Amino acid sequence: MDKRMVFGQRERTLRYDIAAMLALEEAMAGKPSGEIVASLQRWSFTAMVLLLWAGFKHEDKNLTQSQTRRALEAFINEPNANIRQLRKDITEAIESSSWYKQIEVSAAEDEEEDADANP
Hints:
The protein has a two-stranded antiparallel ribbon. Helix content is 64%, strand content 8%. Strand 1 (3-7) and strand 2 (10-14) form a beta hairpin. The chain has 119 residues and is mainly alpha-helical. Helix 1 (18-27) runs antiparallel to helix 3. It has one domain. It has helices at residues 18-27, 33-41, 45-56, 65-76, 83-95, 98-117; strands at 3-7, 10-14.
Protein backbone atom coordinates (compact mmCIF):
# COMPACT_ATOMS: atom_id res chain seq x y z
CA MET A 1 0.00 0.00 0.00
CA ASP A 2 1.21 3.47 -0.82
CA LYS A 3 1.47 6.33 1.67
CA ARG A 4 0.59 9.84 0.40
CA MET A 5 2.41 12.69 2.10
CA VAL A 6 3.75 16.20 1.58
CA PHE A 7 7.54 16.23 1.37
CA GLY A 8 9.91 18.58 -0.39
CA GLN A 9 7.12 21.14 -0.87
CA ARG A 10 5.04 18.74 -2.97
CA GLU A 11 2.70 15.84 -2.52
CA ARG A 12 4.47 12.53 -2.92
CA THR A 13 3.74 8.86 -2.53
CA LEU A 14 5.95 6.46 -0.62
CA ARG A 15 5.94 3.00 -2.18
CA TYR A 16 8.03 0.14 -0.88
CA ASP A 17 7.68 -2.50 -3.55
CA ILE A 18 10.38 -5.06 -4.34
CA ALA A 19 12.12 -2.64 -6.73
CA ALA A 20 12.39 -0.06 -3.94
CA MET A 21 13.76 -2.60 -1.50
CA LEU A 22 16.31 -3.90 -4.00
CA ALA A 23 17.51 -0.34 -4.65
CA LEU A 24 17.68 0.25 -0.91
CA GLU A 25 19.70 -2.89 -0.21
CA GLU A 26 22.05 -2.10 -3.08
CA ALA A 27 22.59 1.44 -1.76
CA MET A 28 23.38 -0.03 1.65
CA ALA A 29 26.01 -2.43 0.29
CA GLY A 30 23.79 -5.48 0.55
CA LYS A 31 22.59 -4.85 4.10
CA PRO A 32 19.24 -6.65 4.57
CA SER A 33 16.10 -4.53 4.48
CA GLY A 34 15.16 -5.52 8.03
CA GLU A 35 18.38 -4.05 9.39
CA ILE A 36 17.84 -0.83 7.44
CA VAL A 37 14.31 -0.46 8.78
CA ALA A 38 15.60 -1.13 12.32
CA SER A 39 18.18 1.63 11.77
CA LEU A 40 15.35 4.06 11.07
CA GLN A 41 13.88 3.27 14.48
CA ARG A 42 17.25 4.19 16.01
CA TRP A 43 17.08 7.58 14.18
CA SER A 44 19.72 6.84 11.56
CA PHE A 45 19.63 9.72 9.09
CA THR A 46 21.39 7.58 6.51
CA ALA A 47 18.54 5.09 6.76
CA MET A 48 15.95 7.87 6.64
CA VAL A 49 17.41 9.45 3.50
CA LEU A 50 17.79 6.10 1.75
CA LEU A 51 14.30 4.93 2.72
CA LEU A 52 12.80 8.18 1.42
CA TRP A 53 14.86 7.95 -1.77
CA ALA A 54 13.87 4.33 -2.41
CA GLY A 55 10.22 5.01 -1.55
CA PHE A 56 9.93 8.00 -3.91
CA LYS A 57 12.00 6.57 -6.75
CA HIS A 58 8.93 5.11 -8.50
CA GLU A 59 7.75 8.69 -9.10
CA ASP A 60 11.06 10.03 -10.34
CA LYS A 61 13.57 7.55 -11.77
CA ASN A 62 16.23 10.29 -11.80
CA LEU A 63 15.87 11.13 -8.09
CA THR A 64 19.24 11.02 -6.35
CA GLN A 65 20.16 10.36 -2.75
CA SER A 66 21.70 13.83 -2.62
CA GLN A 67 18.46 15.46 -3.77
CA THR A 68 16.58 13.47 -1.15
CA ARG A 69 19.04 14.53 1.57
CA ARG A 70 18.61 18.20 0.61
CA ALA A 71 14.82 17.81 0.62
CA LEU A 72 15.02 16.22 4.10
CA GLU A 73 17.18 19.11 5.34
CA ALA A 74 14.66 21.61 3.94
CA PHE A 75 11.80 19.64 5.49
CA ILE A 76 13.46 19.64 8.92
CA ASN A 77 13.91 23.42 8.74
CA GLU A 78 10.24 24.09 7.94
CA PRO A 79 8.38 25.76 10.84
CA ASN A 80 5.83 22.96 11.22
CA ALA A 81 8.18 20.07 10.50
CA ASN A 82 7.44 16.89 12.40
CA ILE A 83 10.26 14.42 11.94
CA ARG A 84 8.58 11.90 14.24
CA GLN A 85 5.56 11.90 11.92
CA LEU A 86 7.86 11.49 8.93
CA ARG A 87 9.46 8.43 10.54
CA LYS A 88 5.98 7.10 11.34
CA ASP A 89 4.86 7.65 7.71
CA ILE A 90 7.87 5.71 6.41
CA THR A 91 7.25 2.89 8.88
CA GLU A 92 3.54 2.72 8.01
CA ALA A 93 4.32 2.59 4.28
CA ILE A 94 6.74 -0.28 4.82
CA GLU A 95 4.44 -2.19 7.15
CA SER A 96 1.52 -1.88 4.72
CA SER A 97 3.47 -3.29 1.77
CA SER A 98 2.45 -6.77 0.61
CA TRP A 99 5.93 -8.28 1.02
CA TYR A 100 6.15 -7.04 4.64
CA LYS A 101 2.78 -8.55 5.53
CA GLN A 102 3.90 -11.90 4.11
CA ILE A 103 7.14 -11.78 6.06
CA GLU A 104 5.22 -11.06 9.27
CA VAL A 105 2.92 -14.06 8.68
CA SER A 106 5.91 -16.25 7.82
CA ALA A 107 7.79 -15.18 10.97
CA ALA A 108 4.76 -15.97 13.14
CA GLU A 109 4.42 -19.40 11.52
CA ASP A 110 8.14 -20.08 12.07
CA GLU A 111 7.80 -19.17 15.75
CA GLU A 112 4.84 -21.55 16.11
CA GLU A 113 6.80 -24.38 14.46
CA ASP A 114 9.79 -23.71 16.72
CA ALA A 115 7.56 -23.76 19.80
CA ASP A 116 5.96 -27.03 18.71
CA ALA A 117 9.36 -28.61 18.02
CA ASN A 118 10.89 -27.45 21.31
CA PRO A 119 8.23 -27.71 24.04
